[in-house]
Design a protein that fits this description.
mainly alpha; 5 helices; 0% strand
Amino acid sequence: MNQTSVHALTLARPVLRGLTILNLLYAAGIAALLAFSFFIEGWPQRPLGFDLTHAHPNIGNGLRVIIVIGILGAVVVHTILRRLLTIVDTVRAGDPFTLRNARHLHVIAWSVLTLEVLRLPVRVIASAVWEPGRLGGFSFTPWLAVLLLFVLAGVFAHGARMRDDLEGTI
């Protein structure tokens, strides 16, 4: 392993832990926002500082749905971060090609796919409320990342099976 890889692995663990804490704070913050939205008089125009309810009477409910999707997204991101941290630990230990890591990558792939699917209703709601008729640009990059993760999970599984076969022949 080269020096850059060693430095990246050294930084990966604290960065992933920091991201996990930030993600939990994000989830708690938007969960609190959702709870308080039912008690804030003038929701959502008062917290936003301007009135959208005349033009879009259902904006309050749309924002609540987006908040719920954000909470679901935080749960999915937490799953990704925890699994990634486990993979980083096995790489640091020198044993990354395991069936367990292949399963972790498979779950991460499904999780990223879930995040992309969760983005769709957010875009539809935002389009209906803020920019009627405009769903914004589409990017292939996240969908390619999902495909890459599924392929990488397969590579890890195949590598783990090959290693097990080699160990069995010695």
